[in-house]
Design goal:
This protein is mostly helical. The chain folds into two domains: 80 residues, Tyrosine recombinase, N-terminal domain (DNA polymerase, domain 1), CATH 1.10.150.130; 175 residues, Intergrase catalytic core (hpI Integrase, Chain A, Orthogonal Bundle). It is built from 13 helices and three strands; from the N terminus they run αααααααβββαααααα. The protein has a three-stranded antiparallel sheet. Helix 6 packs antiparallel against helix 8. The longest helix has 20 residues. The chain is elongated.
Length: 292
């Protein structure tokens, strides 16, 4: 770190001499931590910053102290941006709040998500439909509201894309389909859906539907969860699957990328998923990652 240039940057920002010294000390502590973690300061990620916040908390730092330290780090990266040494400030999306919404601790691992997908039965039209729905939960992180609104025209098999319509709480987005999903969806649209539609009391343009006349798919989701619990007792519900997917996304993508993938209207909604052990989840990323 070039202390003199950064110090001059702070002086030009009209910080008092005592504040300048505090900022310099905070940034030096951050650099000491980066060195121990073998992290290049110019390549710091959002997950790295969260890990540093966790480290500071483990040292007994209160919220006020944490905010001060992260403000110092943010100023340093603002300095690097001003010098055109980096394009973006990695601290811009960091917001420390008291009483942040808690995220369930029973996050399913990547291997557990993959196991659910591989082991769920697909030996009947209904179970094949449910496997397609599960694939959208695991690979695209879809919420139940979005799944309910999907239409056949939203599936773009030739482009390998899926258009997710807006919901009451979520934005629309266009997501990539995985290779193994394309054949699964093609079979569902060509064979399974027409058969299930012929058993229904009325017609619908929705991609997924139950045997009755409703559109909420409540019984479909409930039966799916029962099946998943028989595979892994840790499963608590469909929301848990979405939370697990978003948490894993945050270990490999930027906050803004995850906001788009999840369909969150506000980045603060995505921040709620940044749990303390996010950094540790990176150890689970491997070549078999079902979300890549």
């Amino acid at each position: 770190m070039n202390n003199q240039e950064f110090k001059q940057y702070l002086i030009n920002k009209r910080y008092k001499s005592k504040t300048v010294e505090t900022r310099l000390r905070d940034v030096q502590l951050f650099f000491d931590w980066l060195k121990l973690q073998n992290i290049n300061p110019a390549e710091v990620s959002y997950a790295d910053l969260l890990a540093y916040v966790k480290f500071c908390r483990s040292r007994g730092n209160k919220l006020t102290t944490l905010k001060q330290k992260m403000k110092s780090v943010q100023l340093f990266y603002a300095f690097l941006v001003s010098q055109k040494q980096i394009p973006l400030n990695p601290c811009d999306d960091i917001k420390l709040r008291k009483g942040t919404k808690n995220i369930p601790s029973n996050i399913l691992s990547i291997e557990e998500l993959e196991e659910l997908y591989e082991k769920i039965p697909a030996d009947s039209p209904i179970s094949k439909r449910n496997k397609v729905i599960l694939s959208l939960m695991i690979y695209q992180g879809l919420e139940t509201g979005a799944i309910r609104k999907l239409r056949q025209e939203d599936v773009k098999l030739e482009q390998g894309k899926l258009y997710v319509p807006p919901t009451k709480r979520g934005n629309s987005r266009t997501l990539d389909l995985k290779i193994n999903q394309i054949l699964l969806l093609q079979n569902y649209i060509t064979n399974i859906r027409p058969y299930l539609l012929s058993q229904r009391l009325d017609k619908t343009e929705l991609l997924f539907f139950s045997n009755g006349t409703g559109t909420q798919l409540t019984s479909v989701f409930n039966n799916l969860v029962k099946r998943l619990k028989s595979i892994n007792p840790k499963v608590t519900g469909v929301k848990q699957i979405r939370v697990s997917v978003i948490v894993h996304w945050l270990s490999i993508y930027s906050l803004r990328e995850v906001q788009y993938l999840a369909g969150h209207r506000y980045v603060s909604s995505t921040e709620h998923y940044c749990i303390d052990n996010l950094k540790n989840l990176q150890e689970q990323i491997n070549n078999l990652h079902p979300l890549k």
